[in-house]
């Protein structure tokens, strides 16, 4: 072997080793504050794992959902880690599209994950996605307006109290509306709120034989209550309000109460964004005394598509991003109030966190009281609190949401909306083979 | 011959034209203004029009969060690449249809246009599988190919109508002088059709620049153009209007400036053949 061949050989060996070493993980994620913060903190991970590089694809929630669903269904292999919600995990895991996360390392402490969240991400006893941040829903209210009206918000209000308070606070001449609720049609918009509310009224989407239940009195009660309340005490044009619209109404002081995602608590108490930051109180989502509250459960979680070539590196990253040390890292760099909420019991036991986040207790109780495997008062054949974890639900939920949004807008009556919801759901479920 | 128009009437039409112009431009102006507000000001009601604390914070935030230049380069390569490739295919075919029409030429033209009538999502999965199998997912080459095919019917139709305006006798004369087919197209037809070709080019660059369905669905981290850059700033939960506006302004600025500079050419091309 002459010198040149030797050198060439060495060079290519080094180059090959280099190629094998530098592994790039492509991570698809949503645009929310916690995820963006994580992208800024990844130096901590890459310095501990110099052989792994990270590439981010950040997309709007609905675009992301379409994008990753196409990729995973066709085994496109574009992403090594996907950010998905509690809706996708049970469906995708059953399809065999996800790898079980069984190699998260000895320090991961799976038992520290909040039981409700963990249960939503577990299929057949295996964890298929690790929660990055979790949320439920709760009541946010204006303490000053309640005081003015001579009302006291209980820690766990009933729907009757909420309705009474909302009507009392409403002062339409001064653009103050007693309650702001979602009205914009969509399975993740008004139907998230209404399905969770229906649970607390004793309603359910399907009975044990997958028969739609919109013709039952519980749904009529739910929708009647919602439409009447919003007509009396809601803002004008509520049928086009989603999370962001209500957020800006609340932040500009136009809502007495707002029932929505717990993540909103950090926005409405942030003095930089909110004009009512120091006047907000929190309470559990309301009930009607039937044993279920009207709060939902959602967790943005990290999962690995089946067939991934980089599963080991991906598990390493997931363990880092959803581990205990990450929470400490965020606290050190950005303060405890900015730690991603709703995933670990230890966080809620931490006195520093309790001090920094006035909404911690309400968030934890809301999350703990939601049970994705047993969401309604009556038994159901599905998993999911504010959704039904079947592939058909995105289309169904949005179609039903359009009927309910139209009822809120006054374009049809509550009875008409329920009748057409029943009809279209029965048709779709028969077509999909659930109803034999 | 000019018509006799009263000053009053002139004033009226001018005012109407300005109103319509401002109305159409208003969303872009509003996006631009919002990009200089804070998130709280962006959602304030009633909104402030000009009197707010102007800040460039959003631009810094956007710049620090994502690699604008990478997305910009992808957009440039994809939009110009697909348009140039499209022109290369379309000029000969439009020539054939305009100057040597066959019995079925009209049908072929209609058929090409009909491909634009199908909703793109209908072929997403088959195309995705083809891209996966050929390794074209998340590559600029793949996106150039798709956008070429998507815009080809429009390019051919535009060029066809421009070419129809050119008297065939001129080409015949060139042929009489012994010009080959290639020479006829390159030296005789193309120079005469330059305004038409230029406006076709510009319009298609703009269309490709703004194409959001395929560029979002067939790209991931490497080939993502500015459409993906914008999509990363929208969120259903949380306030994002100011940052989204800053990202949008940065994404449309290059094409807007290009449009301004080539306005004359564009208008000339679009009205080409209106007067004989």
UniProtKB/TrEMBL annotation, chain A:
Principal subcellular localisation of the protein: periplasm
Species whose genome carries this gene: Sinorhizobium kostiense
CDD domains reported in the protein's UniProt record: PBP2_TMBP_like (cd13585)
Cell compartments where the protein resides: Periplasm
Matches recorded under SUPFAM superfamilies: Periplasmic binding protein-like II (SSF53850)
Gene3D superfamilies (UniProt xref): Periplasmic binding protein-like II (3.40.190.10)
PANTHER family for the chain: ARABINOSE-BINDING PROTEIN-RELATED, DIACETYLCHITOBIOSE BINDING PROTEIN DASA
Family under the similarity heading: Belongs to the bacterial solute-binding protein 1 family.
Lineage of the organism: Bacteria, Pseudomonadati, Pseudomonadota, Alphaproteobacteria, Hyphomicrobiales
Keyword Signal: yes
Keyword match Lipid metabolism: no
Range of residues in the leader sequence: 1-22
InterPro entries associated with the record: Bact_solute-bd_prot1, SBP
Protein name per Swiss-Prot or TrEMBL: Sorbitol/mannitol transport system substrate-binding protein
Keyword annotations of the record: Periplasm, Signal
From TrEMBL, chain B:
Alphabetized Pfam families for the sequence: BPD_transp_1 (PF00528)
Localisation: Cell membrane
InterPro entries on file: BP-dep_ABC_trans_perm (IPR050901), MetI-like (IPR000515), MetI-like_sf (IPR035906)
Predominant location: membrane
Domain ABC transmembrane type-1: 72-262
Keywords on record: Cell membrane, Membrane, Transmembrane, Transmembrane helix, Transport
Topology in membrane: Multi-pass membrane protein
Protein's UniProt keywords contain Transmembrane: yes
Ranges that cross the membrane: 12-33, 76-96, 108-131, 143-163, 184-209, 240-261
CDD domains according to UniProt: TM_PBP2 (cd06261)
Keyword 4Fe-4S tagged: no
Family designation: Belongs to the binding-protein-dependent transport system permease family.
Record-linked PANTHER family: INNER MEMBRANE ABC TRANSPORTER PERMEASE PROTEIN YCJP (PTHR32243:SF18), MALTOSE TRANSPORT SYSTEM PERMEASE-RELATED (PTHR32243)
Protein name: Sorbitol/mannitol transport system permease protein
Source organism per UniProt: Sinorhizobium kostiense
């Amino acid at each position: 072997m002459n010198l040149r061949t030797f050198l060439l050989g060495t060079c290519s060996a080094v180059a090959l080793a280099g190629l094998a070493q530098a592994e790039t993980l492509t991570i698809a994620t949503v645009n929310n504050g916690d995820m963006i913060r994580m992208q800024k903190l990844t130096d901590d991970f890459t310095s501990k794992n110099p052989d792994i590089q990270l590439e981010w694809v950040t997309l709007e929630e609905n675009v992301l959902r379409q994008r990753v669903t196409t990729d995973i269904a066709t085994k496109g292999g574009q992403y090594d880690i996907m950010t998905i919600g509690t809706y996708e995990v049970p469906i995708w895991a059953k399809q065999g599209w996800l790898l079980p996360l069984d190699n998260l390392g000895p320090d991961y402490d799976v038992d520290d994950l909040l039981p409700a969240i963990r249960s939503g991400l577990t299929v057949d006893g295996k964890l298929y996605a690790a929660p990055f941040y979790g949320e439920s829903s709760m009541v946010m209210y204006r303490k000053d307006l309640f005081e003015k009206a001579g009302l006291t918000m209980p820690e766990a209000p009933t729907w009757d109290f909420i309705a009474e308070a909302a009507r009392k606070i409403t002062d339409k001449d001064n653009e103050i509306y007693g309650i702001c609720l979602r009205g914009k049609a969509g399975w993740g918009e008004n139907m998230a709120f209404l399905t969770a509310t229906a649970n607390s009224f004793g309603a359910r989407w399907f009975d044990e034989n997958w028969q739609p239940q919109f013709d039952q009195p519980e749904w009529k009660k739910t929708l009647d209550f919602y439409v009447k309340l919003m007509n009396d005490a809601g803002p004008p044009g509520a049928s086009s309000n989603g999370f962001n619209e209500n957020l800006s109404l609340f932040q500009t002081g136009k809502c007495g109460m707002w029932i929505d995602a717990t993540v909103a608590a950090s926005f409405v108490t942030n003095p930089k964004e909110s004009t009512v930051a120091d006047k907000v109180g929190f309470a559990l989502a309301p009930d009607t005394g039937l044993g279920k509250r009207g709060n939902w459960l959602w967790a943005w979680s990290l999962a690995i598509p089946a067939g991934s070539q980089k599963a080991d590196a991906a598990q390493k990253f997931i363990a880092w991003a959803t581990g205990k040390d990450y929470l400490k890292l965020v606290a050190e760099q950005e303060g405890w109030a900015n730690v991603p909420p709703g995933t670990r019991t230890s966080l809620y036991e931490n006195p520093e966190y309790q001090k920094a986040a006035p909404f911690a207790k309400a968030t934890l109780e809301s999350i703990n009281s939601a049970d994705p495997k047993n969401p309604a008062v009556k038994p159901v054949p599905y998993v999911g609190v504010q959704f039904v974890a079947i592939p058909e639900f995105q289309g169904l939920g949005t179609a039903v949401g359009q009927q309910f949004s139209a009822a809120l807008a006054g374009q049809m009556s509550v009875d008409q909306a329920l009748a057409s919801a029943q009809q279209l759901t029965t048709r779709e479920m028969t077509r999909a083979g659930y109803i034999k | 011959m000019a018509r006799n128009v009263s000053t009053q009437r002139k004033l009226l039409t001018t005012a109407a034209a300005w109103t319509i112009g401002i109305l159409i431009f208003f969303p872009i102006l509003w996006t631009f203004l919002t990009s200089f507000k804070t998130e709280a000001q962006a959602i304030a009601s009633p909104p402030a029009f000009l009197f707010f604390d102007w800040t460039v914070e959003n631009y810094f935030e956007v710049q620090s969060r994502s690699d604008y230049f990478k997305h910009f380069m992808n957009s440039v390569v994809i939009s110009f690449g697909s348009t140039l490739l499209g022109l290369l295919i379309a000029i000969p075919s439009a020539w054939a249809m305009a100057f040597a029409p066959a019995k079925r030429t009209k049908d072929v033209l209609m058929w090409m246009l009909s491909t634009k009538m199908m909703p793109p999502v209908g072929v997403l999965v088959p195309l995705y599988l083809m891209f996966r199998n050929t390794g074209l997912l998340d590559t600029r080459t793949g996106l150039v190919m798709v956008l070429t095919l998507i815009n080809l019917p429009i390019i051919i139709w535009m060029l066809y109508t421009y070419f129809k305006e050119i008297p065939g006798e001129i080409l015949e004369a060139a042929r009489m002088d012994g010009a080959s087919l290639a020479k006829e197209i390159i030296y005789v037809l193309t120079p005469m059709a330059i305004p038409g070709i230029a406006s076709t080019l510009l319009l298609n660059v703009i269309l490709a620049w703004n194409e959001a369905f395929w560029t979002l669905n067939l790209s991931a981290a490497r080939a993502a153009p500015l459409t993906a850059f914008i999509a990363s700033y929208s969120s259903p939960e949380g306030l994002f209007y100011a940052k989204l506006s800053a990202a949008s302004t940065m994404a449309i600025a290059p094409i807007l400036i290009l449009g301004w500079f080539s306005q004359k050419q564009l208008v000339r091309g679009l009205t080409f053949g209106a007067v004989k």
